Amino acid sequence: MRVAVVGGGINGLATAWALLQDGHEVALFERNGLMGETSRASTKLLHGGLRYLEHGQLRLVYEALHERNWWLERVPELTRSLQLVLPLYRTGGRPRWKLKAGLWLYDRLAGKAGIGRHRWHPARELTDWVPGLAAEGLRGGYSFFDGQMDDYRLGLWVAERVRGLGGAIHEHHPVTRVDAEGHLATQEATYTFDRVVNVAGPWAEALDRESGVATDHHLDLIRGSHILFDQPLPAGFLLEAPQDGRAFFALPYQGRTLVGTTEVRQGLAEPIACSTAERDYLLTAYNHYFREPKGPGDVADSFAGVRPLVRAGEDPTRTSREYRLERRGRLVTVFGGKWTTARRLGRAVAAAVRG
Fold first, then answer.
1. Which regions in the chain score pLDDT beneath 50?
2. E-strand stretches of 30-78
3. Superfamily of 83-149+220-311 according to CATH
4. Taking a C-beta distance cutoff of 8 angstroms, is the pair 3, 192 a contact?
5. What is the second-level CATH architecture of the domain 2-40+152-217+320-354?
6. Which residue, of 40, 64, 198, 327, has the greatest Cβ tally within 10 A?
7. Cis omega (within 30 of 0) on the bond before 261?
8. What is residue 317's predicted lDDT score, i.e. its pLDDT?
9. Phi, psi (5° rounding) for residue 225?
10. What is the pLDDT of residues 320-330, one digit of tens each?
11. Pairing of strands 195-198, 247-253
């Protein structure tokens, strides 16, 4: 079959790759450059999503943990394992037994795909390991392992696989309309395909709506911002923001420290950038845990991306990092999805195209 893929982020590229492996003729359309939006603005982690366990998303975590290892094993030049620390303070919101239970389950779900078991570290051991860590009220902490990546270059690695299998990639070709009959329009021409896959990430629902295609699923668009300092940390940290109890990361990344992320509702017409309020939120959260305070002048860089979270029904509070597929005739639309599980999503789309 001749299949069009709309979207040149990691999920679009992984979908094109899976379709080509199934023997289809594939043309991918991207409105800007490949990996130019959300997919290069991640927290740079290949991870199962430890915090998703609190919401009962065991299937997602299991899938992500096994996919994490595929990337680590197959593309070692762009990925690595990373040790993360979950410190426990007397004033912390989650008790030690709960952290222990979550990490035990995380290890169990990884099974043979595990890359290291969690373990407990006394307070003195942690402060010797990371001298800048705030010591007051520190009871100790757990360490565990996840993966880290260069998201942009790893996405381009997938694009090379697509081109190697004969896939056609059309960058700077905005798609203006799709429909259930397999038509796809750009500013230059209208094409007809056996299948059209709309995997435009945050723009997927808007493209369907502007094309007059009704959808059962809807997206909540959430901006996630990050800031970077020039000095690297000796380990990664999963922390709890003192302002609201949200989880955030402080990670060593390419000789710097990356701190993120935030959760702010975003409109597609609004600039996608780290706001002053988000920068200050991340600085306050970071300074709560580290003895050398950072100010606005220490922020060497910042970036932001929009996550397309699936909203269930009409309740905007019920969002998920899992993906959903909808089929209308020859059109398949992808809602949601996360970086680590992009290959799984691509295979699910390929199965829907076969059906």
1. 315-317
2. 45-46
3. D-Amino Acid Oxidase, subunit A, domain 2 (3.30.9.10)
4. no
5. 3-Layer(bba) Sandwich (3.50)
6. 198
7. yes
8. 43
9. -110, 155
10. 678 999 999 99
11. unpaired
Residue 196 to residue 300: CA distance in whole angstroms: 41
DSSP secondary structure code for residue 133 in this structure: B
Residue type, 51: R
- β-pairing verdict for 264-265 and 218-229: antiparallel
CA end-to-end span of the chain, whole Å?
12
Structure-token pair, residue 157: 């690695």
Helix (H, G, I), strand (E, B) or coil at 188: coil
Task: Please tell me the predicted confidence (pLDDT) of residue 320.
Answer: 65
Q: Are 14 and 345 in contact (CB under 8 A)?
A: yes
Residue length, the chain? Answer: 355
Burial of 260 (0-12, 13-18, 19+ CB in 10 A): buried
Q: Read off the pLDDT of residues 262-291 as tens digits, 9 standing for 90 and up.
A: 999 999 999 999 999 999 999 999 999 999
